[in-house]
Structures are given as C-alpha cells and as structure tokens.
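DM from R.C. (forwarded with permission)

"hey, sorry to bug you on a friday — could you get me a structure for this? deadline for the figure draft is monday and I only need the backbone to look sensible"
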Amino acid sequence: MDSNRSAAKASQVARVKIYGLALAAGICLGVLVFLCITHDPRPVVVCLGDSLTSCGGEDGRYSDWLGRMLPHIRVVNAGIGGDTLDGACRRYKQDVLKLRPAVVVVALGANDFWRDWRSVDEMRDDLTTMIKSFQAKGARVVVAGCFGERDFWGEHSVEFESGRFDLAWSFAQMEREVCRLYSCRYLPNMQIDVKPNRLKPYWDMTDHPNKAGNEQIALRMLPLVKLALGDR
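My reply, with the result:
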C-alpha cells in the first residue's frame, strides 16, 4: 500500500513539474511574440508641440499624415494643448529623448506669443536648450514656426491685430537665427497654406486645423523631414 502511495505521489509530482515547465514555456513564448510584435525597428520622428500638433482628431494630426507619407518611419505625436517653450523644456527628456528619435520636429511658440509674458531672449534660451539636447543624442531637428511670412499676413489677417506684427516677426527671426547657429531645418509659418483662420475646408470650430488642414501642413513639412532623415 505504501509503495502504491509513493508511486502515485511521485507521478503527481512529475505531472506538476511538467505542467510547470509547459506554463513557463508558454509564458516565454508569449513574451517573445509580444516583443516581436511591439518592437518597431523603424527610425522614430517625434513631433513636439502644443495644440497645433495635437489637433485634428483621430488619425487627422499632421503627425498622422507624416506617418502615412513616410511609412518607413515611426511618427510619435508629443503635442499637448496649451504648451509653451518653457513647458516643453520641463518634459522633453521624458516625452522625447526616451524614444531615441532620429528626428525631432519642434512646433512651439503660439502660446508664448499669445501670452506675451516672457521675452524673446528667454524663449530663445528654451529653444536652444532643447535643440542642443536633441543633437547631443544624435537627433536632427526641424523647427516648424507659426510666423515668418510677414507679407502673407497683410491687412486682411484675422489672426491678430497689426500692433502685434513686430512681436511675431521678432519671434520668427529668433527661430531662424537659432536654426542657422545650430544647423537645424527651419519651416517658417507652417500653416501658411491653410490660413487665415476659419478658411474652409481646413479649420474646425476650435480655430485649429482639421484633418484636411493638417494634411497641408504635413505636405509643407515633408521635404524638411526627409532632408533631416537623410542627414543622419
């Protein structure tokens, strides 16, 4: 009787070991499959910006359009509505550098312009800090500005009153100079093809580009993103 019990117990232990090994093998296989599915070897382009980067709805942001136009890269949208240059300086290490990007598109400044509570020199320092950090990690930078095509604004602009033109122009000149100093690609007035605000069919009810508008913005960015990718 004791020998039968011992044999039964040994058989039970053997079955438990087999089940345990099978379970472990299954878990390992599942992890391996997960890693194969989730690992994306394509170069990463991160779009760092404010609501002009995050707007457009599902699959309608300019980053989504860039991803469709450049299927060999992975485009990550790091836009947060209301963000500013100093706000981006507080989050770029987490939101951008951890992704090890090949290219970073910096599209900031609209909220800094509207709030107008910091000097252009302070904003220059923020932009310079981020550019130098990105470049130190091997990323190329495209700066996409909100201003810079002064002739386009003219007397029919509905964006802002004419008394603010000088600030907008100073901001654009600052971006241009920083890009020259640090060999970045510069896109002035990235929305020029869909302005003025509320121009159908490119704008939505929130005074931001919709999906159609963001397609035009992506088309305007596309050549510079390609060049930046080729610089690596």
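R.C.: lifesaver. The chain has two domains: 1-39, 41-230.
me: no worries. The radius of gyration is 25 Å.
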